[in-house]
Structure formats: C-alpha cells, structure tokens
Design brief:
Blueprint lengths: L2 H11 L19 E8 L8 E4 L13 E4 L1 H11 L1 H4 L3 E8 L3 E8 L7 H23 L5 H8 L71 E4 L5 H21 L1 H4 L2 E6 L2 E7 L9 E3 L8 H16 L3 E4 L4 H12 L4 E4 L13 H8 L2 E5 L12 H14 L5
Parallel strand pairs: 9-10, 10-11, 11-12
Antiparallel strand pairs: 1-5, 1-6, 2-3, 4-5, 7-8, 8-12
C-alpha cells in the first residue's frame, strides 16, 4: 500500500486505537514470507481443550505441560494442518492449540492469489462447519413417537361446538317463526371453547424451541507477526511449544505474570508486569552510566553496580545508554533484582516474552511504563530519555 493510499484510508478510519490485530499498512500480504498467526475464541471460552501437566516437569516426561484437546480442538487443529490442500503456496510449519486461543506458523513459499486475510477467513469458515457438524451429532434425535406426534395430521372431524349447533331444517309440526320468543329453559352453563386443530407452531416439542443467539467460534480478526529474520524462527517455535508451561506458571503466579494498571509512584501512574514488592526494597539504585567512559572505566562501573545488587540492592534503569544496558544485562544474567522503565505500555493481555517471562515468574524483574500501549515503533527522543531517567530517580526516592 502506497503512502497516498494509506493517507486516503485514514480519512475514513476514524480515531486510531491500540490493537494487536491491525495489519501492517506497508506490507504486501500476498508475497513470500513467514507469519505467526494468533486467533482467539470469542469470549475467550476454553473450548479447545484443557491444560494438564506440571509446570516444572522436564520436556519429554509423562507430566510435561500440554493441552488435552477436545473434539472441537482436534477438528480445528486438523483444519489448520489442511490449509496446504487449499493453498499449495502455503506450508504449515507449526500449530499450538490452547484452551481459548491458538498459535500457528505459516510459510508462504510463493506469491498468493489472495490476501493472507482471505486464507484465515477460509480457515475460520471450515472451523465453523466442523463445529456445526459436532454440535448436530451431539444433539439428541427425536423418538419415533415424538416424530409421529409432530407429523400426524389433525382429525378431519373435529367435535361440534355445543354453543353453535349445526343448522337443522325446520320441523313440519313446528314451523320456525322469525318473531318466536327465546326458549323458556334455563340458559346452559358456560362451556370451554371447542378444541381447534393444532397449528404447526403449536406441535413443536420443547427441544425445538428457538435456538439461543449464535456465538461465533473465533473473535473478529487475528494477530500476525511477520518474520524479519530466520534467526527468529527458532524463537517462534520455542514460544509455541512453551505456551502450555507458561500458562501453568501464570496460573501459579498470577501476581507476577499478569499486567496491572494504575500504580501511582510519585508524580507518575504506571502500568506494568512483574514483582511489585521490589518497590518496597530499602535500597533501590538508579543506574546512570556516561557514554564518555573508556572500556576500563565502564567495566569498573559494571562491577560496582553488580556488587551493590549482590548485597540486595534493586537496580532501576530505562537501559538507554550502552553502558546502562550492559549493567542491567549483567544483573539480569545473574538473577539479580532489576526494575526496567519502558517506553511502551501494556494491555490487559500483555505478557513478558522469552527470558523476561521466567525472570518475572522468579520475582527478579519488574517492568513499568507510564505511557499507553502502542503498536508503532517510536524512536526515543532526547526529552523522553530525560524523563525516563528522572522516573528512575523518583522510583529510587532520590531527589530530582
């Protein structure tokens, strides 16, 4: 899509809101490329299976974390693996079913005749058919008697109404007179109305009542990641394989691995993920490393901060300069406590990636951001760097 087309599209798009399901305007989704696709169940219903295993069991063991698929989960997985039959240009590299969502890796080996979104739409349509087939097979079938009752025609001779007798020919002994008075007999007691032949609507059994409102299987849209380097592929594959274990850890440590919002520290309000008890540490040190240091001086600074962290201090930094990144990376690798200030915020479904996930789960890491989440890559300005360094000092209780 050209810049002119993007500009024209924005005129009608309205206010742009953060979304993980927005396409890359500058990417051609028919070209040769590899993608990681994520699809969510509508309402995050756990219909694909259940999570079993031990979060700390080794890979290959009988108790390793895994998803026991439901019949619907098996059908959806089969549909994903069958994408190649409809689009020979696509190779299915991997799939990981989760209780309420799924991840898959697709390799578009040759240019597609359609947008990748149409491929995903076709996959969803196949899953809807599979879901309907399973639902129809699970519904109880009507018994023979019920079928007869439903289809039996109404009696051709309904009983006559006592209040409306059929007209009779006049008697020869007592010719009818239009001026004749009413009969002196007492009026008959009220009778219930005559039964009428059942209407087709009235013959429906209770099980045939109006069906509940239709709930789509998948939520609208999907998330895609575009492979930028083949070095990322093993990371993707490990992420998919590791998803059940990560979910078990999130359930075991919800306070460490789920996003939080509205955390007020000094003059700023933060969202974040990780161990918030690090903020109560009596010693919190803001990491500041000049870019002008020589290699020998830089190494001395790294060791100085590590010594403090080994004594129990929490290192706080936005990790902007190369020296600050080096200090924070060395502390992270040793499993020491760190608080990182980030430019990009979090959403309710955000989660740490890779090593950060397990660092948060161990309680050694806290990630904070005072800004809202966004999808675009925004370069750090000098003013933002200054603000983040001031935030680190504020978190440490130092004078600004």
């Amino acid at each position: 899509m050209t810049d002119e087309q993007i500009a024209q599209k924005k005129i009608f798009a309205g206010e742009k809101k953060p979304s993980m399901k927005r396409r890359d305007d500058h990417h051609n989704y028919t070209e040769r490329r590899m993608y990681m696709i994520t699809l969510e169940v509508e309402g995050r219903r756990p219909v694909f299976g259940r999570l079993v295993g031990d979060a700390f069991a080794p890979w290959g063991s009988a108790n390793e974390p895994r998803i026991e698929l439901s019949e619907l989960g098996k059908a959806v997985q089969s549909e994903w693996m069958g994408i190649h039959a409809y689009y020979p240009q696509i190779e299915v590299k991997a799939v990981q079913m989760m209780p309420d969502h799924m991840h898959g890796i697709l390799f578009v080996m040759a240019p597609l005749p359609v947008h990748l979104g149409q491929v995903i739409s076709g996959f969803k349509a196949g899953c809807r058919k599979a879901e309907k087939a399973l639902r129809d097979a699970a519904e109880p079938q009507p018994t023979e008697n019920a079928t007869v009752n439903q289809t039996a025609p109404a009696s051709p001779q309904p009983p006559a109404s006592p209040q409306a007798p059929s007209p009779q020919p006049p008697s020869p002994q007592a010719p009818a007179s239009p001026q004749a008075p009413a009969s002196p007999q007492a009026p008959a007691s009220p009778q219930p109305p005559s039964p009428q032949p059942p209407s087709p609507q009235a013959t429906a059994l209770p099980s045939q009542a109006a069906p509940p409102p239709y709930t789509p299987l998948f939520a609208k849209g999907y998330n895609d990641l575009i492979l930028r380097s083949y070095n990322e592929l093993p990371t993707w594959q490990n992420y998919l394989r590791d998803n059940p274990r990560r979910l078990l850890l999130k359930r075991a440590c919800p306070n460490l691995l789920r996003p939080f919002f509205g955390l007020q520290i000094g003059t700023h309000c933060y969202s974040g993920i990780g161990n918030r008890t690090l903020l109560a540490s009596p010693r919190r040190i803001a990491v500041r490393v000049s870019r002008r240091l020589s290699e020998q001086q830089l190494e001395a600074e790294v060791q100085r901060y590590l010594t403090e962290a080994r004594k129990g201090a929490v290192l706080v930094s936005p990790s902007i300069s190369p020296g600050e990144k080096r200090v924070m990376r060395a502390a992270f690798n040793e499993g020491l406590a760190t608080i990182v200030i980030m430019e990009n915020g979090f959403t309710p479904l955000s989660k740490p990636h890779g090593e950060q996930f397990y660092a948060c789960g161990r309680g050694q890491l806290l990630m904070l951001s005072p800004w809202e989440h966004h999808n675009e890559k925004k370069p750090l300005t000098a003013e933002m760097c200054r603000q983040m360094n001031l935030m680190a000092m504020e978190i440490c209780g130092q004078k600004i």
